[in-house]
Write a structure and sequence with these properties.
Elements lengths: L17 E4 L5 E4 L1 H7 L3 H4 L13 H7 L7 E8 L7 E9 L5 E7 L8 H4 L2 H31 L3 H25 L8 E3 L1 H16 L4 E5 L7 E3 L1 H17 L4 E14 L2 E13 L27 H11 L3 E7 L2 E9 L13
Parallel strand pairs: 7-9
Antiparallel strand pairs: 1-2, 1-5, 3-4, 4-5, 6-8, 9-10, 10-12, 11-12
Length: about 350
């Protein structure tokens, strides 16, 4: 076995996650920041192939196989995880150590300044949105009235379902307009079933794309309810699905899973609901990789560039996170939502 490389000095005091490997590519150690960020003990990482930390894809493995150049190489938005755990996304620099082996430096993407859509939204854009919202009020009122009249005249179940969908979406848009014109504190979160939210989104997708896109449900039926705002989650998820459709996807999959002991920001949550929106479209353009969540950034000439910024804001309203990984033919947007467990009283019963 080749000797383990000597790590750079004073790593324990650094806040940047760092790990190093020997010439055989196996992890020889890491600093506490790397172990905390990845959510696993440093001892469990030792001896693991460095390339095995890449959650999906082989960018890191291919680079290691090619040998280490003198200068650091940057791998953008790399998903890293201990095998079987939830991935963390980071821009990764990998370089050679003086006595052989490699040093990996991870910069979590959510720590980069300037990616907060709320902070990036200038006052001029806010004023423009309020003006647009004011202009939308009258057409929405007309649509609502037309939907109500139409509902009285249809007599088959499918038509009633479609008119009800029109009415509920008009009402949701009207509430969004009111929120833009008169900002108010967020509504109190209430228990909701995430699959009921997703069914509303799929109904919208079926109405929008028809049979042109295959919509796949991959649900975990054992997931508990979570506390949230159903309308806001519909809006966020519909933005993700619509982006997939507009990126030329032939198949869009909505996948739900439970994750345990997941770190979101500075907090570790015992139970987290993971929602993946998976599509086989063109993917996120490389030029937009670092800016995709900023407002007014869009890969389409006709796009508003607000959908992903709003989706990320909704994630944050629920103490969650939104991230993605993308290549041509395979894009996954992952929404993590903490599930608050009911408190127990002193006798051990649910409060």
């Amino acid at each position: 076995m080749p000797p383990a490389p000597a790590p750079p000095p004073d790593l324990d005091a650094l806040a940047t996650p760092l790990a190093w490997a020997g010439t055989d590519g196996a992890v020889a150690g890491c600093n506490p920041a790397f172990a905390r960020w990845l959510g696993v003990g440093a001892r469990r990482l030792r001896g693991l192939p460095l390339a095995a930390l890449e959650f999906e894809g082989d960018a890191l493995a291919r680079w290691l196989a090619a040998g280490a150049p003198q200068e650091q190489v940057r791998l953008r938005r790399l998903p890293l995880a201990f095998p079987g755990a939830t991935p963390r996304f980071a821009d990764v620099w990998v370089g050679a150590l003086e006595d052989g082996g490699w040093l990996l430096e991870a910069h979590p993407v959510d720590e980069f300044p300037g990616e907060d859509p709320v902070a990036a939204l200038p006052s001029a854009l806010s004023a423009a949105l309020k003006g647009l919202a004011h202009e939308l009020r009258n057409p929405l009122a007309g649509l609502k009235g037309a939907a109500q009249l139409l509902a009285r005249r249809v007599d088959d179940e499918q038509s009633r379902e479609l008119t009800a969908l029109i009415g509920s979406e008009v009402e949701r848009l009207a509430q969004l307009v009111d929120r833009l014109l008169s900002p108010a504190p967020p509504r109190p979160h209430a228990p909701l079933n995430i699959h009921a939210v997703l069914e509303r989104v799929l109904r919208l997708a079926e109405s929008d794309a028809g049979w042109a896109v295959k919509l796949v449900r991959d649900y975990d039926p054992s997931l508990p309810d979570l506390a949230g705002d159903a309308d806001r989650l519909v809006q966020a998820t519909w933005n993700l699905v619509r982006n997939a459709i507009e990126a030329g996807a032939a198949t869009v999959t909505l996948r739900t899973r439970a994750e345990h002991a997941v770190r979101i920001g500075d907090e570790v949550h015992p139970l987290v609901l993971r929602l993946d929106v998976v599509d086989d479209g063109r993917g996120v353009p490389e030029a937009l990789a670092e800016q995709v969540f900023l407002p007014l950034v869009s890969g389409r000439a006709e796009g508003s560039g607000l959908g992903l910024a709003l989706a990320q804001q909704v994630a944050r309203e629920h103490r969650g996170s939104l991230a993605y990984r993308s290549r041509a033919g395979h894009t996954v947007f992952t929404l993590l939502l903490p599930v608050v467990q009911p408190e127990s009283d002193e006798e051990g019963n649910d409060a």
